Amino acid sequence: MAVCASFDEFLPLLVSALEKASEGRSAALLSLLRRRVGFSLTAEQTASIVDKIRGLPKNPPIAFIIALESSFGMDGRVLAAVGRQLTLEFKRSSGLLTLGPEALGSKAGLSDWIRHSMGNVQRSSVEHVRAVFISLLSLAERDYFPELLLSFLRSTLPISGGKKASEGVAIERQLVRTVGKLVQGKTIKTGQIRSMMAIVSAIEDALEIERASRKKAENQLTESRDLTRELDERIRSLADGTRQREQRIQELEVEIDGLHQAVKLGEERAIELDNHWRVVVTQEVAGERHRLRRQLDHELQEAILAINRENPNTEMAAQRLGRALKILQEAKMP
Amino acid sequence: MMGYGIDFGTTNSVAAFSDGKTGKTLALTDKSSNLPHPSVVWYRPNVVEVGRNAKYQIREYSEVAGNAFVTSVKRKLGHDHSYDILGEPKTAWEVAADIFGHLQSHANQEYKHQIENAVVTVPVYYDGRARRELRRAANKAGIEIQTFIHEPFAAVVGYCLGSGRDITQFEGKNILVFDWGGGTLDITICRVSNNRIYELATAGLNEIAGDFFDGRIEDYARNKFVDQSGFRDDILVLRPGTPKRLTFECERAKISLSSTVQERIQVARFFRRNDVEYDLDVSLGRVEFEALIAADMEAAVRQVHRALGQAALSPREVSLALLIGGSSRIPLLQQHMFELFGPRTVNVTNADTIIAEGAAQISRHGWLPYLARPIQVRLADESLYTVFELGRVLKSEACRKDATFYCTDNRDGEARLVLAETLRPGDSTSLTVKEILSVLVDAKLPKPYQHERVYAVFEVDEDLIMHVSSWSATQEHVSKCEIHDLCYGLRLE
User: Fold this and answer.
1) Do the Cβ atoms of A306 and B277 come within 8 Å?
2) How far apart are CA A78 and CA B400, in angstroms?
3) Cβ pair A311:B277 closer than 8 A
4) Rounded distance, CA B281 to CA B266, Å?
5) Is there a contact between B266 and A287 if contact means CB atoms under 8 Å apart?
6) What is the ipTM of this complex?
7) A283–B29: do the CB atoms touch at under 8 Å?
8) Mutating which of A297, A305, A330 best tests the B interface, going by the most B Cβ atoms within 10 A?
9) B103, B14 in Cβ contact below 8 A?
10) Which of A273, A302, A304, A310 should one mutate to test binding to chain B, selecting the residue with the greatest count of B CBs within 10 A?
């Protein structure tokens, strides 16, 4: 198909396709939008086209299809610019843009948003489901996108009126039945099988990532616990060390007190010993003095009695005095 | 921390204290002479004097009216003895109280020590009655007696601890204490075993001691004087003061002969007759002196052998022979003892105070006497019932026992409680009957062993006297007796 070089060239084609679409034939419009063009749409031109598309009947959902296709990348085509604008409209409509940065940046926050958003939707509100789905496609770059998609699908079940696996037939039987339907026709619906396999594979990859992530988290948890235990041990060890040091300090204080006491007692003992030896020396001096006095008294008295009379006994007196002298000499007195 | 001991002696008494802080022990001797206090009491109207001055004045004033002297009161304790003091009766324990009072006041005034509790030493032969009177005397003087300890045990403790030795080095050894003071010779062989000291044998002499040797020299000198002067002995009446001078001179000569071989005994104006003064001047050689006392020394050595025989020991089995008392310094005696015990003979230098010092150390450590032989009751089948076992510490609160006996034979209306001690528990061959207490029982009861019981209470009091009270189940009469000669040792822990 030829490439339109300008918007002026493109516009009549668009008007014609919109008219057909308004009658329920949307294939021409989609085909036009998918064409490569040689111009870029301005914001006003894009807004004008989007308004017109939004004014079309909603069944079939032209806006949804455009937004969906634009998510696969359609650079150089009108569909890309229109799809971006429509996607923005869906995101606004689904409430994604009202999420805070914390919820918007985490898997748990987004999963909660999906559950919450889908949980509030009436069964007939297909528009909202589509808006949520298109919003979800804008997160396709995230690692956990398949899980978000799975979460979306789970949330969709009650809306579409189907029974939960746990409420009716086992999920294995449902799977078998689905696969059976795919292969029971004249031709095997390989495209759908491929799509299903792609979903399953994506989910497996996501689960593998989740498992790896969980394993990593568990390892981190184990490491954290080990580290915590080690830290506890170190804290305990430090506490023990502190306690021992405090105890030792107390012991040392007691020892110091004991030493002070010993020094004090030692001083008192030294004084007492000094007094003791003074008394002993005094006693010995007194004893020696007493002995000398008695002996000298005796010798001198006898000497006096020997000579102080009419017939003095000078020899006896001399001997007495000699003995007294000897006593003095033995006592080493001057 | 502080302990006091008192050696209440026949001739001298002294107190001592032992300080736990310094570990030193000091005898509270007479401050003017550093000698023990003579156990002499001099009574004058309203004046009581004890000690050295009283001793010096005996010869001057003993015959002078208004003066009364009491010596050797220790021998009279326990015999209800009473003195006539200036016309008034005074018991022996009251005189002893004056000596305790002197020791107390002297310690207080001269050494600033207040003796309130003390261990008091007694001779091995001292019985319960004497101990009871001694306690009464001490109490009157304001001294509480912690316990009584035998003098030789105190001497052993005083020697061992006083010289810095450990008493445990004599574990299992036999020690002979030879205490020859002014009044008596007391020989005790004791053994140290399992932190205990107990006696194995005792012997001694009552009449021959230090004062006796001075008397022998005095007699010798007088006889020589009589020989030299030609005066008859019966006219040899000495003037007052002269006998005291002669005694002093003889004592001096005796002491001097311990280190010299010849000494002269000289007393100027010894005797006066017809206005002429005669001097006493005689020579006394160590050989002559030893001849004078040879018989006494041999008697003393015989007592040593007697004690060894009692203890069934040879001299070699004695590890230490402690010589205590003034008379132990006589060279002849030391020679005899050295021949027996060789270098294990020790002349104690502080012999006058060692017993008091040992008692003070016992007091400080709180050591107590213990029963050295078990007290038992001999039963009808000749078996022995132990009342107080060997080793029982003799504290009055720990020595009481109640017992009930069966009466096996009531025919003569009395049951006999035979109290005995044995050398070893259950050894009936070494049994010595201490007392037989007769208890009234009903003579008419058939099969008395079924109906008649004899109850008994045994107690040892603080004077180490055992009291026994006994009565039967059917009679009201309570029979009592006392045992005054329990055999006790000293527990060193």
Assistant:
1) no
2) 127
3) yes
4) 4
5) no
6) 0.73
7) yes
8) A305
9) yes
10) A302
Nearest-Cα residue of chain A relative to residue B253: A295
Q: Nearest CA of chain A to the CA of B340: how many Å? A: 33
Give me the mean pLDDT over the B333-341 stretch.
93
pLDDT digits over A281-324, tens only? 888 888 888 888 888 998 999 999 999 888 889 999 999 999 89
Residue to test with chain A: of B17, B19, B22, most A Cβ within 10 A:
B22
Considering CB atoms only, which of B31, B252, B277 is closest to A286? B31
Is A91 a residue whose pLDDT tops 50? Answer: yes
Could you say which of A273, A288, A319 has the minimum Cβ distance to residue B22?
A273
Query: Which of B18, B25, B33, B274 should one mutate to test binding to chain A, selecting the residue with the greatest count of A CBs within 10 A?
Result: B33
Please name the residues between 280 and 319 in chain A that touch chain B, using a CB distance below 8 Å.
280, 282-284, 286-288, 290-291, 294-295, 298, 301-303, 305-306, 309, 311, 313, 316-317, 319
Q: Do B35 and A284 touch (CB under 8 A)?
A: no
CA distance B136 to chain A (A): 31
Query: For residues A63 and A86, is the Cβ–Cβ distance under 8 A?
Result: yes
CB < 8 Å & 24+ apart, contacts of A103-111 = A107/A142, A107/A144, A107/A147, A107/A148, A110/A139, A110/A148, A111/A147, A111/A148, A111/A151
pLDDT at B438: 92
User: Closest Cα to residue A93, out of A68, A112, A117?
Assistant: A117
Handedness of CA A273, A275, A280, A285 (dihedral sign): positive
Q: Which residues contact A124 (CB under 8 A, 6 or more apart)?
A: none
How far from B46 is each of A110, B64, B473, CA to CA, in Å? Answer: 123, 16, 56
Residue in A276, A290, A301 closest to B34 by CB: A290
Letter for the amino acid at B251? E
Q: What contacts B231, CB < 8 A, 6 or more positions away? A: B225, B271, B273
* B465-479 confidence digits (pLDDT tens): 999 999 998 888 999
Rounded to 10°, the helix A126-137/A78-94 angle is 120
Contacts of residue A144, Cβ cutoff 8 Å, sequence gap at least 6: A107, A206, A209, A210
Closest Cα in chain A to B33 = A287
Most distant CA pair in chain B, distance: 93
**Mean of pLDDT over chain B:** 89
Contact yes or no for A280 and B26 at CB 8 A: yes
Kindly report the three-state secondary structure assignment for every residue of A5-45. CCHHHHHHHHHHHHHHHHCCCCHHHHHHHHCEECCCCCHHH
